[in-house]
């Protein structure tokens, strides 16, 4: 039995609830500067095990935390699998947000088709917290659990794991971008994708608002945000433009400030 099928069966056996509304969609989040060009080149969205990069913890290697979490959630189905065969991560957009389910992981997202739901598993909360609540499209109790929880708005997503290859042409309804990327190389690369390109309302945080949130991720990240702001404003593109001049883990914390307080 292929690893993806074994993983789906394992999670389904641990899941409870009724079928989810098939109008809901899974969204896959990322920062678009490099990813959109890669999507245009390969036509596939791949996991951190393939790219070696990500917007969460960078532990996708044999024996790393991501490997261990997947082994636990999927009953060891992927323990011997190649990186290309592993699932990709996103969230279930049950709140119908124009920003997608989990903007913590990037200002851009792919909105997947209804058909992708059949090969997606879910958990709540995030897999790094070693959750005990799981779901599939046919057994979905997680939405009620998430709505009853009291987590930070960046952390209240139902995590999704899409098993099997994710093709832009076959599996994506739309790429959704921040309007700050209009007229940029990101929009040009997006125009070459075989899916719709849409724009959400945008992330924008003025430095006067930023200064009041030193207790959120730490004052050093507020100070970094003040340093890199352009004309007193932080946007996803402003962060993208300095990605090669700062530690990506530091920029990730600045992004959290923008994503949390700049909608």
TrEMBL record:
Protein name (record): DUF3626 domain-containing protein
Source organism per UniProt: Saccharothrix ecbatanensis
């Amino acid at each position: 039995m292929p690893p993806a099928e074994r993983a789906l069966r394992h999670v389904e056996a641990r899941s409870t609830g009724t079928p989810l509304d098939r109008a809901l969609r899974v969204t896959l989040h990322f920062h678009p500067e490099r990813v959109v060009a890669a999507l245009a080149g390969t036509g596939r969205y791949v996991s951190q095990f393939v790219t070696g990069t990500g917007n969460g913890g960078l532990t996708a290697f044999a024996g790393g935390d991501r490997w261990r979490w997947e082994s636990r959630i999927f009953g060891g189905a992927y323990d011997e699998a190649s990186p290309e065969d592993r699932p990709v991560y996103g969230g279930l957009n049950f709140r119908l947000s124009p920003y997608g389910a989990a903007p913590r992981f990037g200002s851009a997202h792919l909105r997947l088709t209804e058909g992708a739901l059949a090969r997606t598993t879910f958990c709540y909360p995030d897999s790094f917290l070693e959750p005990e609540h799981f779901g599939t499209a046919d057994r979905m109790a997680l939405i009620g659990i998430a709505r009853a929880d009291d987590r930070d708005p960046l952390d209240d997503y139902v995590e999704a794991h899409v098993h099997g290859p994710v093709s832009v042409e076959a599996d994506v309804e739309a790429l959704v971008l921040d309007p700050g990327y209009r007229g940029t190389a990101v929009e040009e690369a997006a125009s070459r994708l075989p899916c719709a390109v849409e724009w959400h309302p945008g992330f924008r945080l003025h430095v006067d608002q930023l200064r009041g949130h030193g207790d959120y991720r730490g004052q050093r990240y507020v100070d970094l945000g003040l340093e890199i702001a352009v004309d007193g404003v932080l946007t996803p593109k402003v962060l993208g433009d300095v990605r090669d001049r700062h530690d990506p883990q530091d920029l990730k914390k600045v992004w959290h400030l923008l994503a949390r307080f700049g909608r």
